[in-house]
From TrEMBL:
Residue ranges with Basic and acidic residues bias: 1-12
Region (Disordered): 1-40
Protein name: STAS domain-containing protein
Compartments reported by the entry: Membrane
Residue intervals passing through the bilayer: 217-235, 242-261, 267-290, 351-370, 409-428, 481-514, 534-565
GO cellular component: membrane
Species whose genome carries this gene: Cymbomonas tetramitiformis
NCBIfam families in the record: sulP
Cross-referenced Gene3D superfamilies: STAS domain (3.30.750.24)
GO BP of this protein: transmembrane transport
Matching Pfam families: STAS, Sulfate_transp
Entry membrane topology: Multi-pass membrane protein
Record-annotated STAS domain positions: 590-724
């Protein structure tokens, strides 16, 4: 007779009490007590009821009491032996569900502890949006303040304490911002004044709409290079004013994209940029920036090109190197480096503006010595138009241009937001205040939309300037207003001072600012932490250096997504065994002492079960079923004869603690697997343990709960294993009594 099909009530008692005694001895030998612990009072009562029913049905001379005593004694012995062998600490052996003398299936959990109805659950999630702690419903002002956070903090602004810090940080950041803005404009292939334009309107808009107290937005080296690379690739024919118009259109489209993504709460999309991709991309971009600035340091007029083309052209025209520009650039870089090092040691709170000092110094030297004249012939900035930028709407009449800039706008929007939100969250966590990532998306987008109307190319957050702002006492977004005011002053009065500044000094400013972008140490660290992350880092870095920022970014994202898809379709799983003397289950490949249980396969699947990995789930389970007998033999399960074991495969127990959800494709496959195993001889049943709410809901709605059986769904893995062991033991008793 089938062991799996044998119910407790089918147990046939024998009239020979000695036979029962011998059976108990055989059970103790073949099925040691630990295979039956902890035992269920419900199962115990079922065994007793089955024994009584069988005794009455067969007319056996063995009293039902004897059979029940045999089972009860075996159960109690199992409990005693388990408790005696346990070597866990007292702290670990706390009261938990596995300690209770009752099996908790999902069915009796729902009956004993009232399960919240799905409609009630939805009501629990419904709430009125309240304004602050006063419990009042949202007003028109509170709705507006969501988009303009300045309305929240400005009415309560502390002019005595906060104003001093904001003024100091605003001035300090400004003296760093102005030279960086002029230098970064070169990276975007724009005239110097456009860097100042990027430092004006976007900052004002962000001051009104940003939720960060310290973020300083404006021109940023990485985004500046990205803009130039994307526009030149999309519109290679654009030159001069046509190129500037294309950049302004890109800025407008970038802002619109960011606003739309913010309104749709799509900040999560940026999370697909893995840390290894970002690190490899920024490091590769830093190398590209250094290479692009080498021509200014060397005083060579070579055309814009890829990394290898630039290196080739430098080597080809090495005889044209201007020693004066090299001397100016190198000496200026060394001077800025040592001033920055001194700042780190002696002027942490109010750093000396090394870039501004060096620019002014070499500007004076250049003007006094006439470095732009023979015999020096040092390239200088030249005339910089002053005044507030006039308003102009980017030209969008050419649909072909707009179409070709869609992808660059999406990439610029994503990278700009990624750079900004990483800085925002860094200082929000460090200084213990809350920010709204979606509102940051909207604020940055509006800054770029409005900025494009006033000749600003795409702006983003700057880590170095934000760090200075926080270290010099910035308290609120008011420091942005101070910065904007000083930029206006620069545009109105100080632009003539930029005319004699050598380009090699601006290149030195750019190169020195790239220190924070170089992340070779992170790549080295990834090699020891995660090899696949290292290779993604390396692929992104190499593709960025060799193919440019657009190719590098897309390649890195593709590599990251492919790895994510591989992890999704081939997630981690484990064949579990029980550690001797415990109720702990571990991967048998990691723990050689883990016991493979007779008649049972225990498998853990660590991912949501869906269309992409359902076939992998089936393949893994089939592999475990195919190697079941080898696994039993490896762990010392005795053989009866040939390939037949004394413990045939009867249960597939799935630890569902890592399965958070299930889709319809996986439901259909699971139904087929359950139905197929029931038709085997002996039949194999599924037991599901530790199912989370979404998984239970999916199983119930699909009818799989009935297919599997609610009595086969347990709240913990150990209870499921114990139930299977007890049933196998009962079936063994029935089979041997019948024999």
């Amino acid at each position: 007779m089938s062991r799996q099909g044998c119910d407790v009530k089918d147990i046939e008692a024998t009239s020979d009490s000695d036979t029962g005694l011998k059976l108990s001895e055989r059970m103790a030998h073949e099925y040691p007590p630990q295979t039956l612990q902890p035992n269920s009072q419900i199962e115990l009562e079922r065994l007793e009821e089955g024994a009584v029913a069988t005794s009455e049905a067969t007319g056996s001379g063995l009293p039902s009491d004897d059979n029940s005593h045999f089972v009860r004694d075996h159960v109690e012995a199992a409990d005693d032996q388990f408790d005696g062998r346990s070597h866990l600490s007292d702290d670990f052996q706390t009261q938990n569900i596995d300690d209770l003398k009752e099996f908790f299936t999902e069915e009796n959990i729902n009956k004993r502890f009232r399960r919240t109805d799905s409609t009630d659950f939805k009501k629990l999630l419904e709430f009125k949006t309240m304004d602050g702690d006063e419990g009042k419903e949202r007003t028109a002002l509170s709705r507006v303040s969501e988009w303009f956070p300045i309305l929240d903090w400005l009415p309560t602004y502390d002019g005595k304490e906060a104003l001093q810090g904001d003024i100091l940080s605003g001035i300090t950041v400004s003296v760093i911002l102005v030279p960086q803005a002029v230098a970064y404009a070169m990276l975007a292939d724009l005239p110097p004044e456009y860097g100042l334009y990027c430092s004006l309107v976007p900052i004002l808009v962000y001051a009104l709409m940003g939720t960060s107290r310290h973020l300083c937005i404006g021109p940023f080296a990485l985004v500046s290079l990205l803009v130039a690379d994307l526009v030149h690739n999309a519109l290679p024919e654009a030159e001069g004013q046509a190129y500037i118009d294309a950049v302004m259109l890109l800025s407008f489209m970038t802002g619109v994209t960011q606003v739309v993504m913010g309104v749709m709460r799509m900040g999560i999309v940026v999370s697909f940029l893995a840390g290894s991709v970002i690190s490899g991309f920024t490091t590769g971009s830093a190398i590209l920036i250094m290479t692009s600035q080498a021509k200014h340091i060397l005083g060579m007029g070579i055309p814009r090109g890829s990394f290898f083309m630039t290196v080739y052209n430098i080597g080809l025209n090495i005889s044209e190197v201007n020693p004066y520009t090299v001397l100016i650039g190198v000496s200026g870089a060394v001077m800025m480096y040592y001033i920055k090092e001194a700042n780190a040691k002696y002027c942490k709170h109010i750093p000396v503006p090394e870039s501004l000092i060096v620019l002014l110094l070499y500007g004076i030297v250049s003007f006094a010595a006439g470095l732009d004249q023979a015999p020096f012939n040092v390239p200088v900035v030249g005339s910089v138009p002053g005044g507030f930028p006039g308003m102009s709407i980017p030209a969008m009449t050419d649909t072909s241009t707009v179409t070709r800039l869609i992808q660059p706008a999406i990439l610029t929007a994503s990278i700009g937001y990624m750079v900004s939100i990483s800085v925002v969250q860094l200082y929000a966590d460090k200084l213990k205040y809350n920010v709204n990532p979606d509102q940051e998306f909207i604020a940055l987008g509006c800054s770029n939309v409005m900025g494009s109307l006033f000749l600003a190319y795409p702006a983003s957050g700057s880590l170095s300037r934000t760090a200075v702002c926080a270290n010099t006492g910035g308290r609120t977004g008011c420091h942005n207003l101070i910065q904007a005011g000083l930029v206006i002053l620069t545009l109105m009065v100080l632009t003539p001072l930029f005319a004699p500044i050598p380009y090699s000094i601006l290149a030195a400013v750019v190169i020195l600012a790239l220190k924070n972008l170089l992340a070779f140490s992170e790549g080295k660290e990834l090699w020891s932490l995660s090899r696949h992350d290292f290779w993604i880092w390396m692929i992104t870095f190499v593709s960025t250096v060799s193919g440019g920022v657009q190719v590098g970014l897309i390649t890195g994202m593709t590599a990251s997504m492919l790895w994510l898809l591989r992890q999704t379709s081939n997630p981690w799983w484990a064949h579990l065994g029980r550690l001797p003397g415990t109720r702990i289950y571990r991967n048998v490949r990691r723990y050689n002492s883990a016991e493979v249980l007779p008649g049972i396969i225990v498998m853990r699947f660590d991912a949501p079960l869906h269309f992409a990995n359902k076939d992998f789930f089936q393949t893994v389970l089939k592999r475990l079923e195919g190697t079941y007998f080898q696994a039993q033999a490896k762990h010392g399960i005795p053989m009866a004869s040939g390939d037949n074991l004394t413990a045939p495969h009867e249960y597939n127990i799935i630890d569902c603690s890592g399965i958070t959800s299930i889709d319809s494709s996986a439901m259909n496959l699971l139904r087929e697997m359950v139905t197929d195993r029931k038709k085997r001889s002996p039949p194999v049943q599924f037991i599901l343990c530790s199912c989370k709410g979404p998984l239970r809901t999916g199983l119930r709605r699909s009818g799989l709960t009935e297919t599997i059986g609610e009595e086969n769904m347990f709240v913990s893995l150990h209870q499921g294993v114990s139930a299977a062991e007890l049933r196998i033991g009962a079936n063994t008793v029935a089979s041997q009594l019948a024999f």
